[in-house]
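The step that takes the researchers longest sounds almost clerical: writing a folded protein down as plain text. Below is the pair of lines this work produces for a single protein:

——
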Amino acid sequence: MTSPQPPLIDTPRGLADLVERCRREEAVAIDTEFHGEKRYWPDLYLVQVAGAGVSPAAVDPLAVADLSPLGELLEDPGVVKVIHSARNDIGVLLHHIPGVAIRNVFDTQIAAAFLGYGEQMSLANLVKSVCKVKPPKQYSMSDWSARPLSPDQVLYALDDVRYLPEMYAKLRTQLEHKGRMQWFLDESLSLTDPETYRVSLRDLFMRTRSADKVKSQHHPLLWMLVRWREELARTMNRPRQFIAQDSLLCRIAILSPSTVEELTVLRGLPGGFVDKYGADVVRMSLESKSNPPADTPVVEPPGQDWGRSARKDIFRIFLKKKSAELKISPTVLLPKETFDLLLDDPPRSLEDLLGRPGIPSWRKEALGGELVDLFNGRLGLMLSRNRGIRLVRIR
């Protein structure tokens, strides 16, 4: 039996009316359906919206090309935007609504991580845990680009926002009750920072280099190849790996071909790669030798710190214990980049830790004195047959 036709907004007037109603709400749930597998910029096919006083509705971007009224809602600081796992949705919306500055986001996945529900908990599992409802999953692999969408497809998409207003109210109350609202707000600041969604060429270079441990003499060419691939991917609107895998760029950098013929002997070249890009690759290879780019990222060689591995193990055990005590997953409590930063440059005092930029104040509060004491020999780990591992003060 076919479900009744759910609300699908496909006119500018319909979108304007929906936004007007949503801006009277305290909080509005938002979700998107997009495809990004074959594009550099994901294609947006649905935007779902719901509020405590606004029935779930879906906006069809293929029918309503101008989504700027939705941008007004996203920018409204008086309306909380409730999104689950918000980064992907925000990244897509920033591209399809140029110039929008999204404000006041409540990410239910981040909130759940601060409340002991688990890290990166799926929306379906969180709805089941918080709202005691089990949403259907049969359309999770739908082709959202196809038109017309069936009523059942739209109803499935609306389930992604249907329960979020209720979930927002419950998670907010739990955060306040646990005294973790400020922790959550500090962690959420990056969601509305445009820098979060800008591609870092240096990060791409470091990740590509790690694919094959390219030595420093080949870094200039690899840096040029990474930039070239990124510009080409943007221009073609294709995923960067569609043009060349990271491992292929590494092998080209190591080979450093001086002619197209030299390039052709490289194993694993995709069909047509040499015809399409061979001349560009050789040009970059020759240029990297005669005029290497001055902005090539500097990769520090690993130091001969024989105690680092042991410190890392102790630090990781400490972090797991604190994670269990606070009921916050280790990677949320301290992401890898912050973990490595503190490991390589331990804080000498609490004042030193509190003065470190780039570390949210909630992390300093959560770990604070014990972290400083651990790195300065005033706190140790002790094995206990009955109690596992416990922290002990060292006098």
